[in-house]
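For the sake of transparency, this paper describes our internal protein records without simplification. Because each token names a local backbone shape, the row as a whole describes the fold. One such record is reproduced below, unchanged from the form in which we store it.
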Amino acid sequence: MTHKSAFVQTLMERGHYYQATDLEALDAAALESERGGRALTGYIGYDCTAPSLHVGSLTQIMLMRRLQQCGGKPITLMGGGTTKVGDPSDKNEARPVLTQEVIDANKASIQTVFAKFLTFGDGPRDAIMVDNAQWLDEVKWLDMLREIGKHFTINKMIALDIVKRRLDQEVPITFLEFNYMLLQAYDFLELSRRYECNLQMGGSDQWGNIVQGVELCRRVDERHVLGVTQPLLMNAAGQKMGKTANGAVWLNADMLSPFDYWQYWRNVDDADVEPLMKRMTDLPLDEIARYAALGGSEINLAKIVLATETTAMLHGREAAEAAQATAAAQFGGGGAEGGLPSLDLSEAPTSLAALFVAAGLVDSNGEAKRQAKGGGLRVNDAVIQDVTGPIPDALRDGQEVKLSLGKKRHLMVKLAG
């Protein structure tokens, strides 16, 4: 099928497209927007369940970036209201109920990321940020039941994947969680009324919720709005990306250093380089094709480019190049170590094993002993096989000490002043 709009064409070419409620109508609306007509205004919601988003959320931010690059208007919807309920999607248990103070702190923390990828302002195509607590906190329960409750059937709701999965696994789903899909659909109705929003975007796991919102807008206000989803961030082996052995790949620098972020992208599998370049960078497609054609060890050049471009978008070009230089120094010989993540300890651990535990490189003294036995631990690049001994004198003198786990995990440690 030939697509007339740059937006839909971009979704197809860069691997962002999974399914749409009406692809032909989406193409037409995007084309009108690109020609200066009514803006294609699309939103994605982000609940405030943690102080930082992770790379699984970044692919959604990139989807809004593509919309704005093609003349559309993105709405970043903060879930100050829906976070109080919790989305049951892809969860085997209910989310913990967060206090208002924690929700507010999380929201303030994750808001800082979006301006690195989107242009915010008062212009007709500038991105805006909205919090659904603005209307959800004011909703009267009986009024909501009368207005929208009649448009949802229990039959359809329990047939949705996000509910059916839990029921099939005999995992309880609370009435609180069951209401989440109503609230998300109501978000679309409110955004349609307040901001002329006519598109909801998201990951493929949000399809059921998106369809509910599209149907609600049609039934209540007789508005023809649209939905589109993209594939979840998966590697070539079919596994979800965004986590490492040490936890989530966070977007906030205070939760994951630019160096570790750079290393995450540098270490992806060879088969994932091309699709990740398409989805997570702005590199031209012809340039990506040239990198994809590299064979053998030359694919490492493409991985370095991927790591540097993704890190530059999030943390800035200077931080990305510093991370690249640090990696070159570590694995290519020579150079400075200033770009390595660092940690200040409040007091000296009692042993080398405890030092590696305190640094977060291993989980226990026992693991430290096992790693050391296999030659996997180093202090200032010297292999350490006995971790029961005392910590280095340099650390006691207030100097930085370099700790390494294997070839790819490094940390500079010193005692706090």
In short: The longest strand covers residues 41-47.
